[in-house]
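Narrative summary of target 7.
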Amino acid sequence: MEHHIRLHAVTAAIVVALGGAVSLVTSTAVAARAYTDRGRQAAREEQTITVKGSTRQRIMSDRAVWEIEVNGRGPTLRDAFDVLSKGTDRVRRFLDEMGFEDSEFELDAIDTCTHHARDAKGNETREVAEYELEREFTITTATVERVHRSAGRVTELIQEGVHVISYSPSYYYSKLPQLKIDLMAAASADARLRAEKIAASTGCSLGELRQARMGVLQITRPLSTEVSGYGMYDTSTIEKDIRAVVTATFGIVGG
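Modeled conformation, tokenized:
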């Protein structure tokens, strides 16, 4: 009887030991498989490709800012003012003749400069040689072509004795915020196309977009290749090229 009891006890111990060993092996295998799966998942997550996509579009300026300076000189303030006044009136008539509305331009305050005579050694004296007065017209308008035509003709008033200086007009595009969204979409599509071709050449397929970052806009003269790390905004021409670049990172599947 005692012999049987001892035999059962030994058998039970062996079964428990075997069960523990099997459980340990199973747990180790599961843990190893989970670790391997996590490693594969991490490797898949680390498989990415980063490319740059770009797009270029021609735009037409829809806003112009143009400045015209009128001068008047004379031995006295009154003489200088009379010359300035006549010149200002003539420029105002010129703008009217070119079709500009009064609401499209402003006339700044008069600036006064006193020029003193110099002695035989070239030193400035207290004697007044002449007075110089100047005023500026600032034209802001959506009629950019009219500004372009007028800027090339206003200096003809010099032949009439008007002391006038025409500064180069600046041309702007007022719808950049909306256009920027469209450009980003086009540049992103270009980036995806480039990434798909690169991935396909290595036997992989393109996964989801991980990150996209748009660079600064380059607004230049038509066909220009100029770029700047801070972006460019050329205002010298009515027609402009606007270029946008997007840096995109995609996941890679396979390989």
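The longest helix spans residues 2-46.
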